[in-house]
Structures are given as structure tokens and as C-alpha cells.
Specification:
heterodimer, A: 137 residues, mainly alpha, 4 helices, 68% helix, 0% strand, elongated, B: mainly alpha, 5 helices, transmembrane helix (chain B), transmembrane (chain B)
């Protein structure tokens, strides 16, 4: 979809706003899950719950980065999407290989299968969107 | 738990079903709008308003049941989902107003696909058997 009618190369308009909306939804989901896990049963699976908190933080910062746009915002979003992609792939593989490591579900377990694999898709879309809106030199 | 089992779940009834159906209808309608390159229209915003009223009524019914002595199976998760749920339609409406293009309709569609999932999760966290 090459759209000639969008002269502004910014991350927070058009499809970018949809991406931000999905990031906000995941930020809410991951944050509430992490808070609940950490408050009620942190001792059961500290690694998994700490990871939930990290994932939640990354979703929040990524949404802020995309929404702020600009140079700093783009760099923030780039770092977050990259960490997110590495995280979901590594945790996905680890959670399949060694079930004891993550005894309880996290957003990234089994490549995010509990969330319709959107956690795997989201960083890819984010990176693609950052690439699409890259400033021309 | 036994009380809840005896009186039935307050979040599993006509209100919950109506909100799921309305949300899915809105998702379909906003998807049609997005594919036709239309910004969010009046019907999407009215739909989100009605959806919010249904969800608020659902929340009130749940809170009344809790005030009357019923208890959700997983109280923490239940309240988390309940708070999230009533925030979803306003979130969709605000973002849709900010984005008066086809992508605004796409945002309404995305949020309206998430809402039924949260309603179902809400029902599941009410009736957890064996903790």
C-alpha cells in the first residue's frame, strides 16, 4: 500500500495510531497481569513475574516512543521493539524447551500464544512502521 | 463460593451477552468502514457509547452482588478486568476522534475485538472452581 497522499513521515499518524492503540492495549494487559502476579504470588515464579513486569514496561515505553515521534521518540521505539522481538523469541523458545523456567504464563510464553501470537507480530509491525516512516536524508 | 454458585454469576447474563454481541457488531461495522476508507462515523461513536453504558451496568450489577456477599473466584484479576473493561470504549472513542481517517475505524475495530475477550475473562475469573 504505497500511499502518495501521506506526505508526513511521522510514526503517530494513520496506521501508526492503530499500532499505538494496540501497544496501549498490551501495556494495560501486561501491566495489570504483572502487578497482580507480583502482589499476590511473587514467590511462586519470580523469574516469570519479573519478566511480565519488564514486558509491561517495554510496551508502555514503546507506545510513548511511537506517540511522541520525533528523533528521540523513534529511537526509544526502535530500542523497545528490538528488545521486544528478542524477548518474545528467546522466551518463546525457552518456555517450550524448559517448562520449569517459566512455571506460570507470561505475555511472551510460547511466543505469545495466549494472546493470539500478537506479541510476536507487534514488534515486527513496529520495526516495519519505523522503517516505513524513516526520515529521508 | 457456595453463595456465588447458588445465586449464579452476576457477570453471566443478558447484559454480558448484549455487550459481547454489540461489541462484535461494532467491530464488523468499523471494519467495513475501514476497508471502505471511511473515518469513524456517528454510528461507531453512538455504538461505543451504548457499549459503555452496558459495561457500566454490568459493573454495577457485579458490585451490587459483591456488596450482597457474593465473591469472585479470583478477586484481584476480576477487579482488574472490570476496571479495564469500562475503560476500553472511552479509549477507542478518544483515539478514533484523534484519527479521523480509515485508521480511526480500524482502532474502533481492534478495541471492539478485545472487549468480548475481556468480558469472557471477567466471567472466568468470577467462577474459578477449586481456586
Amino acid at each position: 500500500m504505497v500511499d502518495t497522499a501521506t506526505p508526513r513521515r511521522t510514526t503517530n499518524r494513520g496506521p501508526g495510531r492503530l499500532l499505538i492503540a494496540v501497544y496501549i492495549l498490551f501495556a494495560i494487559a501486561a501491566t495489570s497481569r504483572a502487578l497482580l502476579q507480583i502482589i499476590t504470588k511473587f514467590d511462586e515464579a519470580p523469574v516469570a513475574y519479573a519478566l511480565s513486569a519488564v514486558a509491561a514496561l517495554i510496551y508502555i515505553v514503546a507506545a510513548i516512543g511511537l506517540a511522541r515521534a520525533g528523533h528521540a521518540g523513534r529511537r526509544l521505539a526502535l530500542v523497545c521493539c528490538s528488545v521486544e522481538l528478542v524477548g518474545v523469541v528467546v522466551v518463546g523458545i525457552l518456555s517450550l524447551a524448559d517448562k520449569d523456567l517459566f512455571p506460570d504464563e507470561t505475555v511472551w510464553s510460547q511466543f505469545g500464544s495466549g494472546y493470539g501470537y500478537i506479541p510476536l507480530l507487534l514488534p515486527l509491525l513496529g520495526l516495519f512502521w519505523l522503517h516505513r516512516t524513516r526520515p529521508t536524508r | 463460593m457456595t453463595v456465588a454458585a447458588a445465586t449464579g454469576s452476576p457477570v453471566d447474563g443478558l447484559l454480558a451477552t448484549a455487550s459481547i454481541v454489540l461489541s462484535l457488531l461494532l467491530a464488523v461495522w468499523s471494519l467495513v468502514s475501514a476497508t471502505r476508507n471511511r473515518p469513524p462515523d456517528r454510528w461507531q461513536l453512538i455504538g461505543l457509547g451504548v457499549l459503555e453504558l452496558l459495561l457500566l451496568a454490568l459493573a454495577v450489577v457485579a458490585l451490587v452482588a459483591i456488596a450482597g456477599g457474593d465473591r469472585p473466584g479470583e478477586p484481584g484479576a476480576f477487579f482488574g478486568y472490570l476496571v479495564t473493561l469500562v475503560c476500553l470504549p472511552p479509549l477507542a472513542a478518544v483515539l478514533a476522534r484523534m484519527e479521523p481517517t480509515r485508521w480511526g475505524s480500524a482502532i474502533v475495530c481492534a478495541v471492539c475485538l478485545v472487549t468480548p475477550v475481556v468480558v469472557v475473562r471477567l466471567q472466568q475469573t468470577w467462577e474459578v472452581l477449586g481456586g
